[in-house]
UniProtKB/TrEMBL annotation:
Record keywords: Lipoprotein
Hydrolase as UniProt keyword: no
Name by which UniProt lists this protein: Lipoprotein
Assigned GO CC terms: cytosol
Annotated organism of origin: Neisseria canis
Domain of life: Bacteria
InterPro entries in the cross-refs: Uncharacterised_CreA (IPR010292)
Length: 183
């Protein structure tokens, strides 16, 4: 019985570390040939920012292959890049919900101790989102990081006459912003 519980716990832990990160795999490029298991590679994934409707982020990261990956014991390198783009005619968000930095993506990069993360930061004065990707470990993370910035003024400006906005919303470039409550 204890052995069965241990195996179930290990299986669920392996599943939690391995994937299910809510992304769409776009493609990959092989970097190192491995006789056993998958090749080392760079994978590209896409995911929508959960609180900014109309923005999709693309992340590329190094993935270690080989026999260790087959048994989910590999540790991926801390090399990653992120780029976020407008993927809808308009972008909508609530400033109160995104005012503080937020983790919008997290993926296990080793058996237990290392994760790859994307953080979103918002600059309300300029209506700009900054996205930073980095990896961390329980003991020590990596200073390697990559960043992308996305402005509400990047896309085609919305025509106020053609877009319906609520009284608490404003148009800034291609964004419809629900303003944070005034104190």
């Amino acid at each position: 019985m204890k052995k069965t519980i241990g195996i179930l716990a290990l299986s669920s832990l392996l599943g939690a570390c391995g994937g299910g990160d809510g992304t769409d795999k776009i493609g990959e490029a092989s970097t190192v040939f491995n006789m056993l298991g998958k090749n080392d590679r760079i994978e590209i994934h896409a995911f929508d920012d959960p609180q900014i409707k109309g923005v999709t982020c693309y992340i590329s990261y190094a993935k270690k292959g080989g026999l260790k990956e087959t048994v989910n014991l590999e540790e991926d390198a801390s090399d990653a890049s992120v780029s976020c783009v407008q993927t809808a005619p308009q972008i909508t968000f609530n400033e109160a919900e995104i005012a503080k930095p937020q983790k919008i993506f997290k993926k296990g990069s080793s058996f237990i101790f290392k994760t790859l993360q994307v953080m979103r930061y918002y600059d309300p004065a300029r209506k700009v989102f900054s996205y930073m990707v980095y990896s961390d470990k329980v003991i020590q993370g990596s200073p390697k990081n990559s960043m992308d910035a996305f402005s509400c003024y990047t896309g085609a400006p919305l025509d106020a006459a053609k877009v319906s906005v609520q009284p608490n919303q404003q148009i800034h470039g291609s964004c419809i912003v629900t303003a944070a409550a005034q104190r």
